[in-house]
Amino acid sequence: MTAANVSRAMALSAPTVHEMIKRLESDGFIERDERKRISFTAEGLAVARDVASRHRLVERFLVDVLGIPWYEVHTEAARIDRSVSPMVLEKMREAIGTATTCPHGHPIAVGQRVRCGTRLADVPVGERITMLRFENEQDEIVRSLHAAGARLGLTGVVERNDDEAVVVESPEGLHTELSPRVAATVAVWASVSTPGPPANATPIAPR
User: Fold this and answer.
1) How many whole angstroms separate alpha carbon 53 and alpha carbon 41?
2) pLDDT digits (tens, 9 = 90+) for 100-147
3) How far apart are the C-alpha atoms of 195 and 39, rounded to whole Å?
4) CA 173/CA 196 separation, integer angstroms
C-alpha cells in the first residue's frame, strides 16, 4: 500500500494523506520501506483493529437501535466512538443481537471480512452483480449512494459503464446510476455464468 493508493481509496487529496501518514509514522503506528510502501507496526495494527471494531459497533447500534439512517451514521459514530466505555460497548453489542457487520458491510470483528468482490467501476457491461460493501464512508459518497438507490444486497445487471456513469438495473426495475468515482467505492460480487454469489460471499443483508 502506498500514499497514492490511500488517496484514491479514501477519495482524499494527496497533501491530506501525506500529512496523515507523517503523523502516524511519527507516532510509531506505521512504517515505510525504501519504496515508500506503508505497513502497520504491531502496535499500530492493534490500535487500528480496536478503533475500527469500536466504530463499526457504534454505527450498527445507532442504526439498529436508534434508527439513524445508514447514510448519516458514520459522522455521528465518529463523534462518540472514542469516548464509549467498555461497559457501554458491551451493552451496545448485546443490543445489536446477531449483527456481524456495520451498516456499510464491514465486519465488526476486524479480520473476518469477506475476501471476494471487486470494484463496481471495474465490472463490464452485462455482468450480474450483488453489492457487498461500501468501502468509503464519507458523507458525500454514502449520501450519493443512497440517493441513487444503492444498498447492501442489491442485485442487478451492469447496463452501462463508461467515463460518465456506471448504471445497474435491478430485476425490480430499479435504475441505479453512479459516477465512476463513487462506483469505485462499491465492492460487489460479479459473475456472468452463475445465478448468484456463493453462500460464503453474502453474509451481509440489508438492515
Assistant:
1) 18
2) 999 999 999 887 665 568 999 999 999 999 999 999 898 899 999 999
3) 38
4) 18
Question: Within a 13 Å sphere around the CA of 171, how many CA atoms are in the beta-carbon half?
Answer: 7
Per-residue cell: 145? 449512494
Give the Cα separation of 51 and 104 in Å (integer).
Answer: 16
Q: Can you tell me the distance from the alpha carbon of 68 to that of 34, in angstroms, rounded to the nearest whole number?
A: 45
Only one residue has cell 462506483, namely 183
Residue 29 to residue 6: CA distance in whole angstroms: 16
Whole-angstrom CA distances from 117 to 9, 142, 152, 191 are 15, 19, 13, 10
Dihedral sign of CA atoms 15, 21, 25, 31 in order: negative
- Calculate the alpha carbon distances from 22 to 3, 48, 78, 82, 138 in Å: 10, 16, 22, 22, 22
Amino acid at 27: D
Contact in structure between 123 and 161 (CB atoms under 8 Å): yes
Asked if 130 and 188 count as a contact pair (C-beta separation under 8 A), the reply is yes
Contact (Cβ atoms closer than 8 angstroms) between residue 114 and residue 132: yes
pLDDT tens for 140-190 read 999 999 999 999 999 999 999 999 999 999 998 899 999 999 999 999 998
Instruction: With H, G, I as helix, E, B as strand and everything else as coil, classify residue 171.
Output: coil
| Dist CA 22 CA 6 (whole Å) | 13
Total residues found in the chain within this entry: 207
